[in-house]
Amino acid sequence: MQHERMNAARKLACVAVVAVCAVSLGANWLAPAGYSKQFREAPSAPPSHQHLLGTDEVGRDRFARVLYGTRISLLLAPAAALVSTVLAALVGGLAGYLGGIWLRLARGFTDLFLSLPWLFLLITVRALLPLNVSPLVSVLITFLILGLLGWAASARVLSTSADAMRNSDFVLQARASGLHGPRLFLVHVLPNLKPVLYAQFWISIPVFILSEANLGILGLGVAEPLPSWGSLLRELEGLISFREEPWRLVPLLLLIVVMTSFQMLLSNEEVTA
Amino acid sequence: MSTNMIGRRAFLRFLFCFALVSLTLTSGSAFSQSGGELRFCLRSEPKTFDPLLVDDDSSLSIRYLTGGVLVRANRKTQDLEPELAESWRVSKDGKQITFKLRRGITFSDGSPFSSEDVAFTMQRLMDPALHSSTGDAFRSGSGAVSTKIIAADQIAIIFPAPLAGLERLFDQVAIMSGRSPKKEAAVLGPFRVAEYKAGSSVLLRRNPNYWKKDSQGHRLPYLDSIRLDIQSNRDVEMLRFKRGELDLINVLDSDYFDRLAASSPGLAHDAGASLDSDFMWFNQVASAPIPEYKRAWFRSANFRRAISQAINREDLSRVVFNGHAQPAVGPVSPANKFWFNSKLKAEPYRPDAALKRLQADGFYVQNGALFDKGGNAVEFSIVTNAGNKPRERMAVMVQEDLGKLGIKVNVVTLDFPSLIERISQKFNYEAAMLGFRNVDLDPNGQMNIWLSSAENHAWNPQQKSPETTWEAEVDRLMRAQASTADPKKRKESFDRVQEIAAEEAPFIYLVNQNALSAVSSAVEGANPGILSPQTFWNAERLTLNASTRASR
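Above: the input entities. Below: the structure tokens describing the complete assembly.
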């Protein structure tokens, strides 16, 4: 019974994710006005036939911006999460598997990495980058930075799991059977780390989406006029009453729906990991 | 019951009523001595309580409320009014000002006020070791500023070179006591600092020795105290105002203003165009790390004027500020009644004319994109400070406007320190968008912008000698207006500066934001204006209504 309910939930989640992806891919047809056209005669307008979710402060169609922003964030936040999870698997997983001095070194390194004042380092990164980059390049740079910087916390979790696995029965048995080195890691350890890796991957996505919005303050976020979930969520700053303009919550609701759906798509083991 | 008894009761009743009426009348007339506690927010920690070292908004507010000045510029009429000085006289050569002081005034600690205190204040203010920005405004030439005490109530201050608009500068000089052991804590203004909790609040209490009285002879100020809560978050400030915990919001964003006006129309005040302006400019620094062909664009007046014509200022005012801003004309806001050059008008939105100007410089449009005569696509970035929503929105709208000419604009928002480093030290930027918060009506307040040698000559600062003929002329005119005491001649010179600014467009002025503020219905006597401090410029005459006084 519970299994059936779980299956139904997963189906529903699957439909939600596919629907969101399909709608965002069809943005060109569904929102022909585009994400940057300014309807200056109707700034901050409420929903209407012309603008299904109203317009933003400079009169851009919010529905179009949500669709295009979804496309960007759904494509690039998972890509950044993938980069950070791979790095975490390499550093944390290998260190945990090797143990001893390697584990201590890796933990020291990740601790050091986590304690660095990233705000100042990111300001330095911004200073090194040219000002004249197209919005699309700015998106790639932003999510690459997120991917390269976001691995440390996941690596810590993975090193602990891999460390626990190193002395587990099945690894000992594999060793006794003559299996060791990279093969043992790739064939036995890494597949067993999969639930943790999945969990870290899914956790990273919303974190990166929100981080992207914060990076905008340092001039590193997705550049105008390109929308992203991060920039759409920034619009909620200063919203005193949700009752007055509930349609402005749509990006937030969309984020919640997509993230919940992703979580539900995970198998039981992955969720519990 | 005897008639005697009834008579006694009637008499007692009469006595009771008389006492009640007397009490009511007394409390009514005594509001001047019990005006309650006014509450509003400072948006940052005050950096100093030393009135001569004030440089930030919060310290400015405290200085305004606590400092006694010789003359005060009326924030509504913009006229100078006598304060601690009964009268003053500027010499014909503009090098000397003589003040006749009021007698019988004492500081908040009881120490007497005399010309010696004025001399002490001026000597301290002009001490180079103090690094006072207020003092910098008085530095007219090489040589020291001297004071001559003529009598206990008369003093002359002598400057090495003529200083235009001299008397108005004293609006910023809070007189300190030369003898009081309490130093800056001894004040001549309506309030004194009673308590300071770092990061939390500043409590000002009525100065019991304040000299001023109202027309009915009641000693000012009416308020007992002012509590200034240190609160940088504007959302929290607005929420507290709506809850009745705060009485004033001195400067309000247009978004908040409209929300407040919708819910409580009587509390939101739009005093019209302020002195503040938002503008953009191009980097013209010879050593800036930008391509040579871009520098050539930025140095062309035709290019700058074309950009100016291609920006729809009416839209900026209407969309970004919900109509609470005016298209800017130039370096002087129309709100500055005397110094504004009324012959000038804001640049109208004329994209066709802009394109013609560009074509005159060899630019051409191909496939919707603009190219210069060397075949380089016209693309540049505009940097502005992150977190300033109106400015970010303006940049996006300018991006769209210029896109219609085929110009590709990249909007880059940076944290403020990085932005300042780029525009004032490394010059690693192409165009910038910022604002100028003008508190000084006099053009001398803009000397540090318009002189080609000035640090704030943003588009090409600290030039050893003027690099263009028009900058040389501006230098000459600014010095000419600063070296004469004749207001008519000064006006002529500064009018010409404004004309040159319009012709050459080194700054592309965008909008003058309106002075928006909020005043609670609990406050009586408020009359918000455009000059800082907008809502509490007449703090000494403000009071709270009876119910608010009773509840606090």
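Note for the figure: Residues 3-29 of chain B form the longest helix (27 residues).
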